[in-house]
UniProtKB/TrEMBL annotation:
InterPro entries registered for this protein in UniProt: Ppandiol/glycerol_DeHydtase_su, Prodiol/glycerol_DeHase__sf_su
Organism of this sequence: Mycolicibacterium helvum
Superkingdom classification of source: Bacteria
Pfam families assigned: Dehydratase_SU
Protein's name in the database: Glycerol dehydrogenase
Gene3D superfamilies: Propanediol/glycerol dehydratase, small subunit
Lineage: Bacteria, Bacillati, Actinomycetota, Actinomycetes, Mycobacteriales
Amino acid sequence: MTISAHSGRALDEITVQAARAGQLDLDDIRISRDTLLSQAETAERSGSAQLGMNLRRAAEMTVLSASDMLAAYEALRPNRSTFDELQELAARLAAHEAHACAQLVREAAAAYQRRGLLR
């Protein structure tokens, strides 16, 4: 597998010189979904199932904009969201084919509800 940026640019094209020349944009320094999935497979083969799952969720998040991703992180902080708001976030993630992320949000909502950590 060839490692590439989220933009598709090859790793050897992402250099300090390119950055200084203004030839790179944000997607050139973001990791690609395929690279994250490859890393997840490697982690799982080496017995690191939890790391593999974390990398799979990260791969799902590559379809989100930076602002949507930050909003999701903010919503998951204790006492920041209601149960219904977290359920809506899970539905939005699922609509973006981010099913593992959506499941994590549902589990967090249930745990927050049990522990009194909802707004």
